[in-house]
Amino acid sequence: MEPMGTHLRRREGLGGEPEERPSGEGNTETHRAPDLVQWTRHMEAVKMQLLEQAQEKLVELLDRAIWEAIQSHPPQDRPLPSPHPAPLSKTQKPSFGRRKVFVVRKSLLDELMEVQHFRTIYHMFIAGLCVFIISTLAIDFIDEGRLVLEFDLLIFSFGQLPLALVTWVPMFLATLLAPYQALRLWARPRAGGAWMLRAVLGCVLLAAHAAVLCVLPIHVAVKHELPPASRCILVFEQVRLLMKSYSFLREAVPGTLRARGREGIWAPSFSSYLYFLFCPTLIYRETYPRTPSVRWNYVAKNFAQALGCVLYACFILGRLCVPIFANMSREPFSTRALLLSIMHATLPGLLNFTMNDRHTGPAWNVLMWTLLFLGQGIQVSLYCQEWYARWHCPLPQTTFWGLLTPRSWSCHA
Q1: What is the mean pLDDT of residues 201-220?
Q2: Which of 250, 252, 255, 257 minimizes the C-alpha distance to 188?
Q3: Is 215 helix (H, G, I), strand (E, B) or coil?
Q4: Where is this region: Disordered (predicted)?
């Protein structure tokens, strides 16, 4: 037990006047306040940077985990139902961090070839090609006594191919260098006006790249009057390279700008971009799933199929269409020439319609319903006509042929 006097003195000391403090302590707190605010802002920036880096790593790990899970569990006969996404509310924004995951899978054509009906159609086309080749050989040997190989149409279609390849080289080099160098200029850390100059220079490179791809192939194709196949090569490569460069910038620029504050330059590797320009995809990634080894037999098979399609089209057009339409403008119009042109153009037109026309689905649907309504109208009209004929012109005797033959053909009542 403490004495009462001591307890009272301690209470008075606590509740009494405050002790005197040194005069310099207030100034120290005043000077520390701006430093504390600055430090807080720095820590907030570090926190945001760490969260962004953690989100990138988490997305990458989840993509890899999904790909490994798909690889370890092959698809069964019945696919799993995909969960329906919940509807977005007005305040909820869609997530822009989702990225497409590439997995090892068969192409759509390979999957179609596993269907028996599609393989039957494929074999029918091969059989038709063999029949055409045999008939052509027989006709050539009977008429000419020798084998006549005419590749004039193929040579004409791919005429001036060296000029098309020479034009393709600067297009490819512009796509290879301009977007990648522009991205490296944007990836450098900000340093006053120098970064602004680099940003403008990157935009100039992209503008020059777009000008080369848009102007050069069209100018060469129009000025030199390239044949159809050579012109298609330039136009298709023009569109492909534009889409490739756009996809590369769209996928790589956000990550490059987020990582700009680090030391050095962070940009995708040049080898990955070069591989992306040749791989059959329009979505850029640093790595893609690949087979352990190159299947050269698969490559040779697809190359042979592509070459066979070119020869098939050249053979049909050269044997059926070109001989008929070559001299049509020089001959007077006649019913014979019209019927021959229609019959010879039926097979190429049907082949082009079924293989190349992308509107075959809606066209077949509209054609089916149109013919259905026309058939119903014709059926009602013929039924009424036949009923009237059998009512006013009854058969003298009932025979099997009389039942099959329309009575309206011989009734004149």
Answers
A1: 90
A2: 257
A3: helix
A4: 1-33, 73-93
Distances (CA, A) of 255 to 4, 179, 200, 387: 73, 15, 20, 79
Q: Is 71 within 8 Å of 103 (Cβ atoms)?
A: yes
pLDDT tens track for 243-276: 999 999 888 888 777 766 555 557 788 888 898 9
Say if 77 falls within a structural domain. Answer: no
* pLDDT of amino acid 13: 44
- Report how far residue 216's alpha carbon sits from residue 238's, in angstroms, rounded to the nearest whole number: 9
Cβ–Cβ under 8 Å, residues 198 and 185: yes
pLDDT in tens, 358-393: 555 566 677 777 888 888 878 887 887 788 788 888
Contact in structure between 97 and 56 (CB atoms under 8 Å)? no
Query: Residue 367's domain spans which residues?
Result: 358-413
Contact 269, 286 (CB under 8 A): yes
Instruction: Please tell me the distance from the alpha carbon of residue 129 to that of residue 368, in angstroms, as a whole number.
Output: 29
* Shared domain check, 203 and 167: yes
The answer to the question of residue 18 being in a domain is no
Domains held by the chain: number: 3
Same domain, 277 and 378: no
- Which of 149, 176, 197 terminates a domain? The answer is 149
- Average pLDDT of the segment spanning 42-64: 82
Q: Is residue 15 part of a domain?
A: no
374/29 Cα distance (integer angstroms): 95
- Strand, helix or coil for residue 178: helix
> Which of these three, 149, 168, 203, is where a domain ends?
149
